[in-house]
Design a protein that fits this description.
Rossmann fold, eight-stranded mixed β-sheet, 8 strands
Length: about 350
């Protein structure tokens, strides 16, 4: 049986543990920070805090010890909030070994460094004479509750390491969880991180009472600006037409289970960000953290991202959502394709 460590027992980490556990060919150790989560899983086989009503298979054990979680693991899956990725991998580092495969299932950018999660893991694991880890990024249109329920789902594992990608495809895939491979790590990771920002914008439109025309325009132009940054960072344009691009963007902008969209809805209704975050009871909307990092990354790469810039103004500068939408709609006229000027227009 394969030994797999899942680090992070939020809704998504718990859901992945359920997927891995139901295959019957894995021993899964789920690391959980919260004692109440560990107690809930140990006594009732359910994560009452983050993923209630979904039974966790008996082959999934839960622990608060990194050593216990990672000992003899063949695959280590990181499913922590992006801003905790570096710190948690630093704590895990004494127990990590060169033969392990690493999978990042976190969608975000690290504030300050602007690094993607696989880049953070590579830096931490490879520092001070460590080893260069074999890493992949798992991303795509996935709501944790639907994955745990067994709804048919498709997702992408991105890695330049073909052997790793094929191993994860085989070990994670089942008839209800279809895994595709992709060599474009930058595109897959950035698509997964940046779509959360557009989802907040979609929620703002809903909270303001705007209709389907507005959401459709936002998704389309959001995809355009995400694609510009992906390409500027070395990713592929065609990746943005796939699961980690358009697929995840549509899901997160339109689905009622999207935490990022829900944050936007409340902002559009006039609530302040601290109130919204407090009401989430420990759940994380990655787009809140990613937005400012994305603005900085776009500035560094010379890419214009008007929707992202307006969401940053709402989230971190106190701008009125209605004013932000107005400013987006009254920008100077552009060509949609930009072919007349030789480059895509914002």
């Amino acid at each position: 049986m394969s030994e797999i460590a899942v680090v992070g027992a939020g809704a998504w980490g718990t859901s992945l543990s359920i997927v891995l556990g139901r295959k019957g060919t894995h021993r899964v150790r789920l690391w959980a920070h919260e004692k109440e989560v560990r107690d809930s899983i140990s006594s009732r086989r359910v994560n009452e805090l983050f993923l209630p009503e979904h039974t966790i298979p008996d082959c999934v054990s839960v622990t608060g010890s990194f050593e216990e979680a990672i000992h003899d693991a063949e695959i280590v899956v990181g499913v922590m909030p992006s801003q905790h990725c570096r710190g948690l991998f630093q704590k895990m580092r004494p127990f990590l070994k060169p033969g392990m495969l690493f999978v990042s299932a976190t969608k975000g950018l690290e504030e300050g460094t602007l690094l993607r999660m696989t880049e953070v893991i590579a830096v931490v694991v490879g520092s001070d004479g460590g080893f260069q880890p074999r890493i992949g990024a798992l991303s795509g249109p996935t709501f944790a509750k639907e994955v745990a329920r067994g709804d048919p789902t498709a997702i992408t594992i991105a890695s330049r390491d073909t052997g790793l990608a094929e191993t994860i495809q085989r070990e994670f895939g089942d008839p209800r969880f279809r895994v595709y491979t992709n060599a474009d790590v930058a595109g897959v990771e950035l698509g997964g991180a940046l779509k959360n920002i557009i989802a907040i914008a979609a929620g703002v439109c809903d909270g303001l009472g705007l209709g389907h025309n507005s959401i459709a325009a936002l998704i389309t132009r959001g995809l355009a600006e995400i694609t510009r940054l992906v390409v500027a960072c070395g990713g592929r344009q065609d990746t943005m037409a796939g699961l980690a691009g358009l697929g995840d963007l549509v899901l997160t902008c339109t689905g009622g289970l999207s935490r990022n969209r829900s944050v936007g809805v409340e902002l559009g209704r006039g609530r302040k960000l601290p109130q919204i975050i407090a009401a989430m009871h420990g759940m994380v909307a990655e787009g809140v953290f990613t937005t400012h990092a994305a603005v900085e990354l776009a500035r560094a790469r010379g890419v214009e991202m008007p929707i992202t810039a307006q969401m940053d103004a709402i989230l971190h500068q106190g701008k009125s959502p209605r004013d932000a939408i107005h400013d987006l709609m009254t920008r100077s006229s552009k060509s949609e394709s930009g072919l007349d000027r030789g480059k895509p227009q914002a």
